Amino acid sequence: MALYAAVGVALLLVGARAIRAEGGESAPPAAVAAPTDGGSIEIGGGGGDLVVDVAGAVRRPGVYRLPEGARVVDAIARAGGADGGAVLEGINRAARLTDGQQVVVPGEAAAGVATAAVGVAAEDAPIGLGDATVEQLETIEGIGPVTAAKIVEYRDSQGGLASVEQLDEVSGIGPATMESLRARLQP
Questions:
Q1: Bridge-partner residues for 185, per DSSP?
Q2: Distance of CA 102 to the CA centre of its chain
Q3: DSSP-assigned beta bridge partners for residue 103
Q4: Domain check: are 80 and 23 in the same one?
Q5: How far is the C-alpha of 28 from the C-alpha of 37, rounded, in Å?
Q6: What are the residues facing 31 on neighbouring strands?
Q7: Residues facing residue 186 across a β-bridge
Q8: Is the C-alpha dihedral spanning 82, 38, 16, 97 positive or negative?
Q9: Contacts of 27 (CB under 8 A, 6+ apart)
């Protein structure tokens, strides 16, 4: 078993160096582990690093290690940059990253859902969580201007949200409001 594990680690290191050489990056990591979703997390480096998950409309979604104090824009760049369908206006690229954070870059498909609903009454149309404005959030039952502003501020501080359930962490949102949000928001 130990022999197979050693061979596996060696193959990962050789593959990582080949990928690094192809990408033109100069400093190879100590080791690279590849999760099942196709992304990668670089293991090694100094203490105080952050590990973030970059998903959505980027070229290489995955889990990456970034230095303390890094911003959302740094995480997007580390994931190969935004792809052609990215809607960067839907996230706060200047927000500081926190360890364990997920950065979701919205794509045109998510933005297109809001524009496709032009023929539907405004109060019945689903609202995209990644780009909802304070005014749009106020149309949801139980959401006033203060709570809507808190939701947008929380979303921007997190670099985007992957699910409506994350809004449960915003102060002032209770179980009844969460039900209204689930019914009207889409990720």
A1: 127
A2: 4
A3: 54
A4: yes
A5: 22
A6: 43
A7: 128
A8: positive
A9: none
Domain boundary among 87, 108, 129: 108
* CB-based burial label for 156 (10 Å; 0-12, 13-18, 19+): middle
Quick one: which H or E segment has residue 31? strand 31-33
Same domain, 7 and 74: yes
The sign one gets for the Cα dihedral 129, 131, 134, 135 is negative
Is 45 a member of any domain? yes
Q: Is residue 114 part of a domain?
A: no
Residue with tokens 């197979």: 4
Q: Is 79 helix (H, G, I), strand (E, B) or coil?
A: coil
Indicate the number of domains in the chain.
2
Write down the residue that tokens 């039900």 correspond to.
179
**One digit per residue, pLDDT tens: the chain, 187 residues?**
777 777 878 777 777 666 766 554 444 343 333 343 444 444 444 567 899 999 989 999 999 999 999 999 999 999 999 998 888 887 888 888 888 888 889 887 654 444 443 444 445 567 777 778 888 888 888 888 888 888 888 888 888 877 788 888 888 888 888 887 888 887 6
What CA–CA distance (Å, rounded) separates 98 from 95? 10
pTM of the model: 0.43
Range of the domain at 16: 2-108
Is residue 129 situated within a structural domain? yes
